[in-house]
What does this fold into?
Amino acid sequence: MYNHSDTIASLATGPGGTIAVIRISGRNAFDISSKILKPDNALKEPKNGVSYLLKVVDENNQIIDRAIVIAYINPKSFTGEDMVEIFCHNSPYIVKKIIELLTKNGARQAIRGEFSFRAFINGKMDLSQAEGLNELIKAETEKQHRIAINQANGKLSRKIDLIKDSIINLLSEIEVRIDDNYEEMENIDISNYLENIESTMNDIKKLVKSYEKANFIKNGIKIAIVGSPNSGKSSLLNRILGYERAITSEIPGTTRDTIEAVTQIGGIKAIFTDTAGIRANSNDKIEIEGMERTKNAIRTSDIIIYLEDVSKPQSDDDKLAVDMINKNMKKGAKLIKTYSKSDLEKTKQEKDFLYTSSKTGENLDKLLSTISNTEENVIDSAYDEIITSQRQKQCLENSLKELIKAREILSDSNYEIVAEHLRMSLNHLEDITGKTTSDDILKNIFKNFCVGK
It folds into this structure.
């Protein structure tokens, strides 16, 4: 997949800022770097983790930049190899020139995820930690960060190890009886053994279920604002966002298409959709198409905010909007019934409605709190034991299937086949941490990393 004997180099930082970091890793990292860094004796006998202020020079000994340079001696580096980091000025010319000089002197441009891959094969992290590291880089919100940092720090790995230990204990009880040629061992206590299998299966099921929570956090909560024309949907969206995202007007039907906007609520990404107003009698093709898009928004949303103007009697448009929500809301979605324009004279009163005003801000904090509480109920605060990828979920499901087969066969006392299913269950768990993962799967994982990571 990668040539491990090469010394690799790449920019590890993105555009913007005044400082760029260039990484070099491999057995010739110090030798190659010393050819462009002066005085070169700093890297002839480097001290681990010590920083040096050195000149970067070209083949004609012309100064390119002055840089802070840190040397890491294997295995005390991110990759587990000899490694150098050059902190130079973030000029496109300087960065390009330094990488060019490094490649001329024997380094190779790293490809996506190659530094992290080397860290993985050199035992600096397992595969689930590497995936957590990639999620950490991509984290946009507090809760995305919390899940990623826990996985990168090995909390998922430790949970997988505990489940593996349980299966190993189950396997040991079987294998000792397979090897009992003189039948000196008592028969397995089937009831107790099945209880232990069930306990292990429940641990795996809990992790599988956590994938839904991870997706919720990674992809964000989808919230549709639905109501009749001029019920205040766009005004509510703008008030929540704190800026004018949607056009507002006293003329009904201003919003004729869905408008999306992203913000954060309680540390989670919230994707709001302002929908076209629901009108009971319309011959306008554009308006009809807008209402069809509203239906789609309802079907795909986790939360529906139904908005009704409290200053006007309930209309046929309002009734149609309620009917549309009831028919299209997906299973498990939450409906928040909300009155808008509570700063005006009220014409109706329902106990299960929340009174809000986009003009005064009345009860908007309660509305956001309701959304936030919905998020917490879905997440269930399970940050330590949570899986973040479809690959991890599939491995767990495969492991679970093997345990189910072992449980079914156990009553027949066919211990050899039971043992084989337990071994297969273990193998699928080891795929999560990378002990038995194929090169094709590894390549697919690390290709999603940044070039310098």
